[in-house]
Amino acid sequence: MSKTVFAALLALGLCACSNGDARAGDAAAPDATVAGTATGTGTGAGPGQAAATLAVTIHSANGAHVFTVESAKTEAEQARGLMYRTDLKPNRGMLFWPYPTDGSGPREANFWMKNTPSPLDIIYIRADRTIARIAENTIPFSETPIPSGEPVGAVLEIMGGRAGELGIAEGDRVEWPGAPG
């Protein structure tokens, strides 16, 4: 594959799942939009490489719920998110942290589901690690922005419907290794 074709495909992929106004990939947009943040690996791992994971625990009224998630820390990882994924398991997901990637502090986020074939629950997390909003069972392939509604410092994506099944709600506390506070 020529370098020109590869560069064009890479640029298209980054634009599709952006951090700007439709996902975490359009850094130019004032309120990043990430598309159902879908990632092949989410951590920059290449083919045949395992993606790094961490445990995210959500403390809800009915107990603690632990998810093993991939970490999307870079703009490119956040732009791709969970795009193209069809293999998401019930207690797996992706954490977009820090959000935004430039470390400028919490800001409103808009994610989308472009190129994301599976419904997701998108959990917007405030800087104090409480849940600000849960967008449940997002519509696969939709390019409609899904806003956080307020500034957030992290975003967690899990299998669609899991938040409701587990009783996860706005205001619940979220913890992960290295989290602020």
TrEMBL record:
Keywords, comma-separated and alphabetical: Signal
Xref: PROSITE patterns: PROKAR_LIPOPROTEIN
InterPro entries per the UniProt record, alphabetical: DUF192 (IPR003795), Saro_0823-like_sf (IPR038695)
Listed name of the protein: DUF192 domain-containing protein
Keyword Signal found: yes
Annotated signal sequence range: 1-24
Organism for this UniProt entry: Sphingomonas aerolata
